[in-house]
């Protein structure tokens, strides 16, 4: 692998790992949505890298739109407040919707989003999340249909995931050194 960024403690998913995960998810979605022309909703900003790869791994017709919500701000802890920063441009009534998310932690962000989208009467709403964070004794508020992988309970960056808007461009996923956000 190419040089690892100095702020990364350890790489947990290499580019090759990521490629295999996304290919597999694209295959699952292609099988399930044959003839359904699903609308993939990328939850900005974190999911845009994953969504771009996922779309290219889907072999049936599909469309994409974007929604921006803010739940973490610049910090590393969930604020519990979800704010819609950008809404969809597409009408979803009667459409099959797949929400593409970067990482599922508490699931509160997605739970809020799903309720909001359900009110617009889509034909279906399912979630494809690249990663689920494994937290001992905690169950996420939602149950995603498509899960890429499970990651440990640490603050991770790369492949679209940021800390203070940095590191989204790393092509791998890694644990951020704690001294970067401490003090
Ligand atoms: P939830 O509402 O599921 O607790 O939070 C999900 C959102 O928090 C994710 O979409 C992501 O934006 C952010 N998040 C959760 N865990 C991490 C993490 O380990 N690293 C980064 N960069 N963002 C995270
Ligand atoms: Mg996100
Ligand atoms: Mg973030």
TrEMBL record:
Pfam families: Pribosyltran (PF00156). Its cofactor is Mg(2+). Its EC number is 2.4.2.8. One of its GO terms (cellular component) is cytosol. It comes from the Bacteria. Pathway: Purine metabolism; IMP biosynthesis via salvage pathway; IMP from hypoxanthine: step 1/1; Purine metabolism; GMP biosynthesis via salvage pathway; GMP from guanine: step 1/1. Keywords: Cytoplasm, Glycosyltransferase, Magnesium, Metal-binding, Nucleotide-binding, Purine salvage, Transferase. GO terms for biological process: GMP salvage; guanine salvage; hypoxanthine metabolic process; IMP salvage; purine ribonucleoside salvage. The keyword Transferase applies. Residues 14-163 form the Phosphoribosyltransferase domain. CDD domains: PRTases_typeI. It is found in: Cytoplasm. One of its GO terms (molecular function) is guanine phosphoribosyltransferase activity. It catalyses: IMP + diphosphate = hypoxanthine + 5-phospho-alpha-D-ribose 1-diphosphate; GMP + diphosphate = guanine + 5-phospho-alpha-D-ribose 1-diphosphate. InterPro entries: HGPRT, Hxn_phspho_trans, PRTase-like, PRTase_dom. It is an enzyme of class 2 (transferase). Belongs to the purine/pyrimidine phosphoribosyltransferase family. This is Hypoxanthine phosphoribosyltransferase. It comes from Olsenella uli (strain ATCC 49627 / DSM 7084 / CCUG 31166 / CIP 109912 / JCM 12494 / LMG 11480 / NCIMB 702895 / VPI D76D-27C) (Lactobacillus uli).
């Amino acid at each position: 692998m190419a040089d690892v960024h100095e702020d990364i403690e350890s790489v947990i998913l290499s580019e090759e790992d990521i490629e295999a995960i996304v290919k597999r998810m694209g295959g699952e979605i292609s099988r399930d949505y044959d003839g359904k022309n699903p609308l993939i909703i990328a939850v900005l900003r974190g999911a845009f890298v994953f969504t771009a790869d996922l779309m290219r791994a889907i072999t049936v017709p599909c469309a994409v739109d974007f929604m921006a919500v803010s739940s973490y701000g610049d910090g590393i802890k969930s604020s519990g407040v979800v704010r819609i920063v950008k809404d969809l441009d597409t009408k979803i009534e009667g459409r099959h919707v797949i929400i593409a998310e970067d990482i599922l932690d508490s699931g509160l962000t997605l739970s809020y989003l799903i309720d909001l989208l359900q009110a617009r009467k889509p034909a279906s709403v399912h979630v494809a999340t690249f990663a689920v964070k494994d937290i001992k004794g905690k169950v996420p508020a939602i149950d995603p249909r498509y899960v890429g992988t499970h990651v440990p309970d640490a603050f991770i960056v790369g492949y679209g995931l940021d800390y203070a808007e940095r590191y989204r461009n790393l092509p791998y996923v890694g644990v951020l050194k704690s001294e970067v956000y401490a003090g």
